[in-house]
Amino acid sequence: MSLINEKDLEQLTNVKDTTCVSIFIPTQRAGKEVLEEKNKTHLKSLWEEVATKLKEKAVPEGKIEKIGEPIKALLNEKSFWRHQSDGLAIFAAEDFFEKYTLPVNFDAHTYISEEFYIKPLVPMFNEDSRFYVLALQLEDVALYEATRYSIGKVVVDDLVPSKLEERVGFDYKQKHLDFKTQNSGGENTIFHGHGGTSDEVRKEEINKYFRAIDKGLETVLNSESVPLVVATQDYLFPIYEKVNTYKHLIKTVIPGNPSESDMLGLHEKAVQVLEPELEKIKKERIKKFNELNNTGASVTDILPAIQQGKVDSLFLENRSEIWGTYNSDNMNVTIDDAQQEGIYSLMNWGAREVLKQGGHVFLIPEAQMPDKNSKMNALYRF
Q: Which of 182, 220, 233, 280 is most buried, by the most CB atoms less than 10 A from its CB?
């Protein structure tokens, strides 16, 4: 399921209006909070706060009503509130409305300006988060393409049952169902080869089946260099690992029977296994920043460098903000203590521009900022 992509981000950043409203709330997937409709109540409360602020800004009543119409309509969509993830992002203007249910733990936040607030979304657009998940069972197989924040099934013609049966040369599904029924606890026989001839034959059939799967995956993975993580029972992974030819197979398996998890549950387990891999690019950029001793650059230096396309990676303190204005004509930066009329988030401006240029943006806790003397750090391209 594609949750938000570059085209969506481009659409958001291209909207310009005298009144753009951005609302972020944390949500729960299930449990008591969902039953009690706390997610819906939270949004209703935040919209009422926003409406009050808009009145204080002397925004015409008709415009406030038009901005609020789709938000109020959303509050009445019962099915929507039963299917939430970790966070909800809403973007509303007089002639624009978009909502995104996302696996991101947002802090509750509202933002009113002439542009939308996209800073909380930037973790979803870092390139290092893409990977594949292979859900592998003796009776079924499925491939998923995922990022840290999304997952979707990949349809591979060479992995459909009829194609696999042609390669393996037998009804593998029925054979393996029979094998599992007749050999409860027979995993050790497969591993160690202590069984008789029939066990060796079955072991070779599994090897042949797995080789067929590996061959089928070539159509998708032949030009890839992203991680592939396998979800399967522990006793099957060593067998698959021996026949695998993909160079970027992760050696740590997602344990358990993949059929016992839905797609989102499988995704959650995969992210846990791949956490060190998914942090790799960020760690590399921080290391390079420290090696180059890129300290001392202030916001007044960084924003013009961003405009000139010089910034490879932007590090933003995740729970902080820098208020001010930036004049792109003379590259002049002004800093203010708080948001007020005409004053906006310089972090949001920087994140938007770096992402447009294909650079990296990282939201970093204060204690992990490369240069802790500033809320904004930048690694330059040259």
A: 220
pTM of the model: 0.73
CB atoms inside a 10 Å sphere around CB 180: 14
CB count in 10 Å sphere of residue 303: 25
Q: Structure tokens of 94?
A: 């007089």
Tokens matching residue 379? 């690694």
Q: How far apart are CA 99 and CA 110, in angstroms?
A: 14
Give, for 317, the enclosing helix (H) or strand (E). strand 311-317
Query: Distance between CA 11 and CA 13 in Å, rounded?
Result: 6
Nearest Cα residue to 125 out of 273, 250, 282? 282
Percent of the chain at pLDDT > 70 equals 85
Q: How far is CA 24 from the centre of its chain?
A: 16
Q: What is the pLDDT of residues 5-47, one digit of tens each?
A: 888 999 999 998 999 999 999 998 777 776 668 999 999 999 9
So what's the pLDDT on residue 296?
57
Name residue 254's amino acid. Answer: I
Amino acid at position 135, single letter: A
Rg, Å, the chain Cα set: 26
Which element (helix H / strand E) includes 287?
helix 280-292
